[in-house]
Amino acid sequence: MPKFFVEPHQIKENLIQVTGEDAKHIKTVLRSREGEEITLCDGLGTDYFCRIASLEEGVTAEIISSEPCRSEPKTKITLYQGLPKADKMELIMQKCVELGVDRIVAVSTERCIVKLDKKEEKKLERWQKIAEAAAKQSGRGKIPEIAPKVLRFSQALAEAKTLSSAIIPYEKEENRGIRSFVEGFSGAEIGVFIGPEGGFTEEEVQGAMDAGVLPVTLGKRILRTETAGMTAIAILLYELG
């Protein structure tokens, strides 16, 4: 069943008004008709199962029933991703949203080659749209937030201190894996730090450890930046159940 996101103010009593591109998609792409059923989500974790009541002035849907979205992980994961080259960030955003990440923060590190500068605002807007599309496709109960600005590594570390815990995959860590990390974890939020091509410098890793971020191993092979975040998030959510 097709799923779309709406703002809470679009929900009034037993009706939901769908507008803009989503309404256009329902009418012209899906070629939906009155009486057909769709799923709408308020972006706050509630799914509404609806029947299309009218296709005039947007799409008006009548609520049949509602329930908490079952696809949202209980543990909120924030990905702190070092800026990669080319369009790798778009792939990272899309796949990590599908997996269940709660928030993604682009981070400028010492080995980052990419500098967004004047393009930053447009890039962030595009990334947010990619996150929204991935959330729709994967049946999420919310649209993960793309942080509104790129953070320096030191800023990201300071922000991560507000979370329950944080990890940083590091090729020189040999003992602590994600499973052993999860066994000792009892919080509600986890930060995951992933470096750009070339990884983090030893000074950055040490700075992260000094800030309380725990180094973990992802195995005996060194993963690309576009693979490491997906792998860490997938293992985390699997081990957390």
From TrEMBL:
Keywords, alphabetical: Cytoplasm, Methyltransferase, rRNA processing, S-adenosyl-L-methionine, Transferase
Ranges for domain Ribosomal RNA small subunit methyltransferase E PUA-like: 18-58
Subcellular location(s) per record: Cytoplasm
GO cellular component annotations of the record: cytoplasm
Pfam families according to UniProt: Methyltrans_RNA, PUA_4
Boundaries of every Ribosomal RNA small subunit methyltransferase E methyltransferase domain copy: 73-236
Tagged with keyword Cytoplasm: yes
Biological processes, Gene Ontology terms: rRNA base methylation
EC number(s) recorded for this UniProt protein: 2.1.1.193
Function: Specifically methylates the N3 position of the uracil ring of uridine 1498 (m3U1498) in 16S rRNA. Acts on the fully assembled 30S ribosomal subunit.
Protein name listed in UniProt: Ribosomal RNA small subunit methyltransferase E
Gene: rsmE
